[in-house]
């Protein structure tokens, strides 16, 4: 038997694995907790399938441009691959691999019957006309059409992709199949088999796990001080729900600036302002605050819901809060995580906290298969139940094993994935 390290694939640079390297370090952290299942650990360190495609399109000026596209299926032991498609000029294979693996972990952590997958195109969508964007989307969908499908791998929106792009993807796949297949993507418009409640689902999930964390630590939501970074789909909705439950949104930050109001910012009015102007700047109902002061505002709950790598070793020491609920993907660096842990701040990790989106995507897919659509109330009730169950399972492991909620979430998820792997056995 060879004992050489197996998890550095030949197609990445061994000395700069990028986001995939971060993911591998996270997996190594949970290895000691997996018991006999650790014999399957290498499964988690290798994507099942990677497809790299050329996406040529004719630009409006008559020239031909080529873009590089990816679809990575990290693991399908528990069900079809599931994960979004990202359009960004800096997308890399390493990034898509890591995102696909984090989808495996997230889907297993909330126990929806999916594996993990992710896709991306190295393209700046803002530089394309609508027609060019549609052609890129359709050609990419045709190219990855050999591995996606309602029972195999189900894409969804991610950074810079939206309902319209999902509609084009669904149509392209359906045309190639000769029949309408609404279940091939989620995050579709309601008129094409989309689900009620999907748009608010991630923010609602953040709110639900935030309330669970508060309840278990004896913090009352009534009067709790909340700060939110990112006032978009996730942060804006979470802020509104916390406020409706009696909390005060004392600080908000987005790419246009930071606001503070000790008595609580009116989240509903701020959402309307952002919808009109594109950012929180210029909102009359709060004081302007310097951006770097945002992190030191004294709060009970802090919701990073903007970008990755926002809480680092530079600002983690300044943070004065009790609970951090990660709405964004990857907002906290590993070094910051350790600082927050030492300060006794409870961090609810992204793989649980922002899983409301994929949970309602799962509901959308189920509704598409049965062609029977649920009411928004039914969706919200089921979402709350899934989020609470996920939180409880992770909380229990965190208490029993005396590990952070992040490590506990990875333990719960990796065990579920590897248990499925073990029970299926190796084929052939
Ligand atoms: P969005 O585009 O609706 O909002 C992003 C927000 O971040 C905006 O308010 C923007 O102003 C703010 N922002 C951007 N740059 C910033 C900066 N430098 N400093 C402070 N704020 C900045 O996006 P979203 O859908 O709300 O996603 C936010 C995060 O949540 C992302 O990490 C995303 O991957 C993650 N997420 C989203 C979903 C979903 O269903 N939308 C699901 C899971 C995870």
Automatic annotation (TrEMBL):
Annotated SMART domains: ELFV_dehydrog (SM00839)
SUPFAM superfamilies: Aminoacid dehydrogenase-like, N-terminal domain, NAD(P)-binding Rossmann-fold domains
Chain positions recorded as NAD(+) binding sites: 202, 233
Protein name: Glutamate dehydrogenase
Listed GO biological process terms: L-glutamate catabolic process
Family membership: Belongs to the Glu/Leu/Phe/Val dehydrogenases family.
Keywords, ordered alphabetically: NAD, Nucleotide-binding, Oxidoreductase
Ranges where the Glutamate/phenylalanine/leucine/valine/L-tryptophan dehydrogenase C-terminal domain occurs: 195-425
Domain of life of the source: Bacteria
InterPro entries recorded: Aminoacid_DH-like_N_sf (IPR046346), Glu/Leu/Phe/Val/Trp_DH (IPR006095), Glu/Leu/Phe/Val/Trp_DH_C (IPR006096), Glu/Leu/Phe/Val/Trp_DH_dimer (IPR006097), Glu/Leu/Phe/Val_DH_AS (IPR033524), Glu_DH (IPR014362), NAD(P)-bd_dom_sf (IPR036291), NAD_bind_Glu_DH (IPR033922)
Short name of one Pfam family: ELFV_dehydrog
Site positions (Important for catalysis): 158
Binding site for substrate: 82, 106, 361
Active site: 118 (proton donor)
GO MF annotations in UniProt: glutamate dehydrogenase (NAD+) activity; nucleotide binding
């Amino acid at each position: 038997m060879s004992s050489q390290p197996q998890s550095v694939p030949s197609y990445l640079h061994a000395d700069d694995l990028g986001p995939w390297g971060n993911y591998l370090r996270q997996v190594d952290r949970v290895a000691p907790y997996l018991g006999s299942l650790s014999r399957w650990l290498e499964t988690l360190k290798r994507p099942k399938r990677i497809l790299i495609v050329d996406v040529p399109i004719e630009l409006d000026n008559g020239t031909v441009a080529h873009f590089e596209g990816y679809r990575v299926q990290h693991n399908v032991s528990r069900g079809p691959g599931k994960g979004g498609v990202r359009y960004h000029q800096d997308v890399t294979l390493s990034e898509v691999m890591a995102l696909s693996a984090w989808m495996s972990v997230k889907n297993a952590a909330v126990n929806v019957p999916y594996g993990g997958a992710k896709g991306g195109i190295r393209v700046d969508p803002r530089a394309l006309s609508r027609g060019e964007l549609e052609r890129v989307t359709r050609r990419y969908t045709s190219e990855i059409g050999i591995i996606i499908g309602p029972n195999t791998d189900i894409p969804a929106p991610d950074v810079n992709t939206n309902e319209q792009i999902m509609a084009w993807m669904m149509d392209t796949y359906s045309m190639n199949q000769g029949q309408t297949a609404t279940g091939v993507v989620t995050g579709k418009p309601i008129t094409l088999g989309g689900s009620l409640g999907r748009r608010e689902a991630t923010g609602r999930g953040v709110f639900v796990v935030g309330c669970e964390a508060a309840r278990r630590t004896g913090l009352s939501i009534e009067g709790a001080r909340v700060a939110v970074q990112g006032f978009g789909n996730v942060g804006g909705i979470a802020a509104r729900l916390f406020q409706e439950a009696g909390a005060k949104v004392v600080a908000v930050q987005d790419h246009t600036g930071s606001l503070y109001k000790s008595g609580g910012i009116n989240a509903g009015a701020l959402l309307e302002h952002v919808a009109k102007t594109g950012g929180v700047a210029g909102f009359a109902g709060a004081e302007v605050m310097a951006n770097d002061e945002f992190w030191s505002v004294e709060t009970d709950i802090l919701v990073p819901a903007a970008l990755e790598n926002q809480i680092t070793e530079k600002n983690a020491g300044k943070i004065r809060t009790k609970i951090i609920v990660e709405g964004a993907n990857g907002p906290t660096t590993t070094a910051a995580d350790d600082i927050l842990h030492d300060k006794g701040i409870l961090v609810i990790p992204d793989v649980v906290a922002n899983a409301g989106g994929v949970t309602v995507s799962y509901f959308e897919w189920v509704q598409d298969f049965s062609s029977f659509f649920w009411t928004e109330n039914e969706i919200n009730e089921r979402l709350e139940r899934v989020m609470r169950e996920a939180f409880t399972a992770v909380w229990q492991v965190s208490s029993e094993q005396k590990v952070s909620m992040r490590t506990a979430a990875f333990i719960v998820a990796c065990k579920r994935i590897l248990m499925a792997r073990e029970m299926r056995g190796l084929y052939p």
